[in-house]
Amino acid sequence: MLLKKEYASLFEDVHTHVKESAEKMGSSGGALFIIHNDKIVTESYFGKQSNTKHAWDVQADTQFHIASVRKTYIGFAAAYAIYHGYFSMDDPIRRFVKDAHLSAYEGVTIRHLLTHTHGLKIADGKLVSEYKPGSSWAYRGPSIELLATIIKNTTGQSIADIVKEQVLNPAGFQSTEWIKMSQPHSKITDTIRDADNIFWTETDVADGSGMNMYVSAKELALWGYLHLKEGKWSERQIIPKEIIEMATSIQTPNPNLPIHKNGFLWFVKDTNNTFNQIGDKVPKGSYQLLGYTNVTLLVIPEENVVAVRMFNRYGSPEGYDYLSDVRSFGDTVYKCSIKASAM
After folding, report:
1. Cα(8)–Cα(95) distance, rounded to whole angstroms?
2. Half-sphere exposure of 56 (CA within 13 A, CB side)
3. Structure letter (DSSP) for residue 165
4. Which of 37, 147, 298, 300 is a plausible cystine mate for 288, CB 3.0–4.6 Å?
């Protein structure tokens, strides 16, 4: 998609915010890409792809490890499968798993997996139930493995295959890849971690392939823009609108509970609360995902804006409030888009 570039100084505060965050976090480089009112208003690349002596500059085709932001692609694949009738949102997952006899699966549905309300966790090497499905919220790993398995077993395609066939190929994306860490190329950033940071592993469990997702700032923004435009690409409806609506609308089983609200793995803004990753000023109905590498994809439909920030650091330094940082990023994007719309 060829969007007109109309760089706007009114978004300079976002640029300043992102560069300051990169410095505080200890990222060697980063990127910022903003689309507003169907124009590219900010496109910025700074720093190096790693801390090594002869590291490449971060450029337009540099690809960053997007960590949990990959869940937007997993959510899309789930919506695709539901739309085409492979399973329904409220099907019990026992219908699709080999070890259906496990008591932890009692009452767990596809919807629970997609909204982090399943209650499943691993304890002492076993799958157990932490709470009654739908009664609370917790960010746990088993749901992603289960979703990937269910999608592949029912559709006959991996998540990567579905996304490639439905979006990457039709849209002509060139800088969105699942890559093995043992096979990097020159456009890939080296993701920095503290010596004692063993929390994050390099592999993506979503397809059991030992791969993870690396995406350029532009293509991650265009992925968000495809959602903003409800599946339209260059005035062509390449994805049914219903798939996007499912993925980006609140699907949490009991929306009255004081917990995070999710679409299909997207965080969707509802009310303000202390645990939101989306800023207080960002309007209801906006949706976002934040990765452990501090990559963020934010879509604000009310202001027709998509904003992507890319960093290459696992976690953040001790004492750094990453939640406050990402909320502030969203609020700054929203404030600047309001000003730009008023011009």
Report:
1. 52
2. 13
3. I
4. 298
Q: How is residue 171 written in tokens?
A: 């849209």
Total count of domains within the chain: 1
- The Cα–Cα gap between 133 and 141 comes to 15
Q: What are the pLDDT digits (tens) for 42-59?
A: 999 999 999 998 999 999
Any residues with CB less than 8 A from the CB of 321 and at least 6 apart, and which? Answer: none
Give me the sheet containing 211-216, strands edge to edge.
63-65, 211-216, 176-180
Q: At 288, which CATH number?
A: 3.40.710.10
Q: How far apart are CA 268 and CA 72, in angstroms?
A: 12
What confidence score (pLDDT) does residue 1 get? 63
Residue 327 near residue 279, CB atoms below 8 Å: yes
What's the sign of the alpha-carbon dihedral 329, 255, 252, 237?
negative
Note the pLDDT tens digit of each residue in 115-172: 999 999 999 999 999 999 999 999 988 999 999 999 999 999 999 999 999 999 999 9
pLDDT given at position 205: 43
Pick the closest to residue 150 from 99, 223, 212, 202 (CA basis): 99
Residues sharing a CB contact under 8 Å with residue 126, sequence separation 6 or more, in sequence order? none
Write the secondary structure of 202-247 as one string of H (helix), E (strand) and C (coil).
CCECCCCCCEEEEEEHHHHHHHHHHHHCCCEECCEECCCHHHHHHH
Residue 290 backbone zone (phi > 0: left; psi -120 to 50: alpha; other: beta): beta
Are 296 and 316 in contact, with CB atoms under 8 Å apart? no
User: How many whole angstroms separate alpha carbon 220 and alpha carbon 222?
Assistant: 5
61: tokens are 């085709």
Expressed as residue numbers, the domain containing 42 is 4-342
Query: Residue 193: CB partners within 8 Å, gap ≥ 6?
Result: 200, 313, 314, 315
pLDDT of amino acid 22: 96
Angstrom distance (rounded) from CA 129 to CA 118: 8
| Per-residue pLDDT band at 95 (split at 50, 70, 90) | very high
Average pLDDT, integer, range 276-291: 96
pLDDT at 202: 41
